[in-house]
Amino acid sequence: MQGTGTTHSVKRSLEILERARQLIPGVTQLLSRRPTRAALGVSPIYAARAKGCHIWDVDGNEYVDWMSGVGPIILGYADEVVDEAVREQISRGSIYTLVQEQSVELAEELVRLIPSAEMVRYAKGGGEGCAVAVRIARGVTGRDKVLFCGYHGWHDWYLAANLGGEQLHDHLLPGIEPIGVPRCLEGTALPFKYGDLTLLEDLLKKNAGQVAAIIMEPMRSELPPPGFLEGVRELATRHGVVLIFDEVSSGFRIALGGVQEYTGVVPDLSVFAKAISNGYPMAAVVGRREFMEPAARMFISSAYWDDNIGIAAALATLRELERRHAPAYFERLGADFAQRINRAAQAAGLDAGCAGVAAHPGIRFRGLDADTLRKVHTLFIQENARRGVILPPGFFFNCAHGQEALDRTEAAVRESFALIKEGLERDRLDELLECPPQEDLFRRMVS
Ligand SMILES: Cc1ncc(COP(=O)(O)O)c(C=O)c1O
């Protein structure tokens, strides 16, 4: 295991980063993978390979990785079963002039597993899937406006929310400028607050007859307040609005059929991506027949959406998730994980711990102002990284996380927490940080 503190180095990562800065605006394609979001100078940046819940960087360091590829990895990196299905598909060709029967088999599986699914379309990414769902909702209703709650990708329909002033603050990140988004979209995407049915109802009344869709993340880490999703469902039906659940991050984790299976609240359309295919690009937009069927007449079309690799990977992933009882495993793993983190916090005398549902929790440091919190998060990431653990406060379980990962992580977190406690108590956070505090202000990142 790496991470004695003295031997850990990411020199080669930093050298590659310098080359990337000359050539790749923003360095990575996904914001969450930007090195400035971690402990720059200590956290690994460039990977060499990964297996199970372990990742190796280009400097030869090995880590237990709790980020699971920022969500797509749900069975574990380089899972034997999924990769065998992919290899078998590659040997017969990845994409054809024709389509393959497996695209129908996957649709049948999704219809079997997901309560809202009667028909299915495919795409390659989560944001893309959301854009498809919004297009369908606008096409079906003949209306333009969209009410949203949560993060739904990078597309114009969504970033339009910030044209009339900053409205994405609570849903994505503060400070996002809608650069390049057509001004004429102003007023078409309106946010509502999670848990606030009164605000949602007011918005629906104020925009009566103009709202095509309510799109929302049905939950992240915390269970919805009692009656909230049911209330949203009722309002959508009453106002003739298409209800879309964005299950890109929640799908397959708490229940195989998503939050909609877990809560029993069934939307009209839903979007699944990320974990659906254990790391091979794939997304599915599923929904009730009366909303999906009209999609055949809308121009929603892209060459790689018929790619067979993602379809083969998704079929294998869904079958393995079921065979391995993944949601029940995450529940048990999460309970153990939370107990260890909470125990470590207690041992350090730190007001911190796990929060949220067992299958998808987060780590919270309580009672700190925003500036201190950013430093504490960065120090946590930094000290875990140097001890061979990739663990920021938000993370994703996969089925390869087991006892060894838990043991190593608990040991690392105990030391990280002790250091954070010392930094807070003796006002030494700045001294202990070997990198700039983690950036989360988008404004600074694009400047
Ligand atoms: C809820 C939700 N919707 C949409 C997206 C965007 O998905 P992608 O990055 O695959 O475009 C994400 C990504 O994190 C997400 O969590």
Tally the helices: what do you get? Answer: 15
What's the order of the H and E elements? HEEEHHEHEHEHEHEHEEHHHEEHEHHH
What proportion of the residues is helical, as a percent range? 25-40%
Structural domain count: 2
Largest sheet: 7 strands, mixed
For the largest sheet, list the strands in their spatial order: 4-10-9-8-7-5-6
The secondary structure category is alpha/beta
What's the overall average pLDDT, rounded? 95
Within the CATH hierarchy, at the fold level, what is the topology of the largest domain? Aspartate Aminotransferase, domain 2
Which stretches are poorly predicted, pLDDT < 50 over at least 5 residues? 1-5, 441-447
C-alpha Rg (nearest Å): 22 Å
Number of strands: 13
Q: What is the percentage of strand-forming residues?
A: 5-15%
The end-to-end distance, rounded to whole angstroms, is 38 Å
State the shape: globular
Structure description:
The protein is an alpha/beta fold and 447 residues long. It has two domains: 11-75 and 325-446, Aspartate Aminotransferase, domain 1; 80-323, Aspartate Aminotransferase, domain 2 (3-Layer(aba) Sandwich), CATH 3.40.640.10. The protein is 40% helix and 13% strand. The protein is built from 15 helices and 13 strands. The chain has helices at residues 11-23, 80-91, 101-113, 126-141, 156-159, 197-206, 228-238, 258-263, 289-292, 308-323, 326-348, 370-386, 403-425, 429-432, 442-446; strands spanning 47-51, 54-57, 62-65, 119-123, 145-149, 189-191, 211-216, 242-246, 269-272, 283-287, 352-355, 362-365, 389-390. It has a seven-stranded mixed sheet with strand order 4-10-9-8-7-5-6, sandwiched between helices. Strands 1-2-3-13 form a four-stranded mixed sheet. A two-stranded antiparallel sheet has the order 11-12. Strand 11 and strand 12 form a beta hairpin. Helix 2 (80-91) packs antiparallel against helix 10. It starts with 10 loop residues before the first helix and ends with a helix. Mean pLDDT is 95; it is low at 1-5 and 441-447. Bound molecules: pyridoxal-5'-phosphate.
